[in-house]
Amidohydrolase 3 domain-containing protein (marine metagenome), 326 residues
Amino acid sequence: MYDLLIQNGSVVDGTGSKAYLADVAAVDEEIVAIGKLEGDATRIVDAKGMVVSPGFIDLHTHSDLSFLLDPTAQSKIRQGVTFELAGNCGGSYGAPLEGGALESFKKRVSEYPDNLDVNWKDFGGYLDTIQSAGTTLNLAVQVGHGTVRSCVLGMDSRAPDRDEMNRMKELISESIELGAMGFSTGLFYAPGSYARLEEVIELASIAADHGVIYSTHMRDEGTQNTGLMVAVSEAIEVGRRTGIKVEISHVKCKGPAVWGMAGNILDLVERSRREGIDVAGDQYPYTASSTGLTGGLFPRWSLVGGREATLARIADNGVRGRMLED
Ligand SMILES: [Zn+2]
C-alpha cells in the first residue's frame, strides 16, 4: 500500500537521461518505486500527458520579502520550483535590520497593504517569521553585503573605519550563525559599489570561516565601469584570497561591446579552477535581464546619502542635468 501513486507520467528524473513513461510511488513522503506499478494507494494522481520530475532549484532569487507577503508562492510552485536561494546581489532585505537597512525595509514594506509588523532585527527573527508564515517551498537565504553596509554606513560612499568594519563582520558572522547560508555582494549596485576589493575580501573571509558560499553580482557585466573581465577577475580574487566557494551570479555579456566574450569568461573560470579556486557561475534560462530603476539608470554618485538626498538632486536643475549626462 502506497501513500501516493503518480501514474502514467513522463518521468524526467534529473540524472540527464531521457524522459520515460512510468509510475512513481511514495510512502511517508519518500519515493519507494518507479516503473510500471500495480497496487493500492491512499491517493492516486493521473499524470497522463504531464511531466513528473524532482522539484527545480532556483539558485538566484530576490524573494526575500515575497514569502512574508504570500507564503503560498504560487508563481514558483506552479513552475515546479521547490527550493529557492534568496538574498542575492548584496541584498538581504529582511535581515539584518538596523540603521539605513531598517529604514529602507520599512519603506519597502509600507508599499504593500499587508501591514506587516517588522518586529525582528536579526536573521533568526526574520527566518522564524518566514517559517511561521507557512512557506510552501524550501528557502535558503544569504546575508547581503549591501544590506550589512547599509546597516552600518548607510549610503555613504567611503571606506569603513575600523569600528565600522568590525560591526559589519559581527553582523555577517551573527547572521550566518542564525541561519544565513551564504554571503552575497552586488558590487554593481549602491552601496556595494562604494566598497573596494579589500573590504569585500575582509568580509568574505568571515563567511569563508563559516564554510558558506560567496555569490556575487559582479561590479561590471559590460563596459559601465571596470569592464567585464576585470570584474570577473575581482570575483575570482575573492576566492583566491579567502578560500571561499565563489558563485558568479547570472553570468552574462551585457551590451554589444562585450558580446562574444563568453568564451573568455569560461577560460578564466576554468584556469582558476585548475589553480584550485572553487569558482562557478549560473545563468538565466532566458535572454533578457532585469534590474531596479536606480541600478539601471542612476549614476552611483547620485545615490550617495540615500533616497531623500537623491530626490533633492533630481529637484536641482543643474545636478539633474549632470545625472542625465552620466
Ligand atoms: Zn544581480
About this structure: The pocket of zinc ion is lined by residues 88-89, 186, 217, 249-250 (CB under 6 Å).
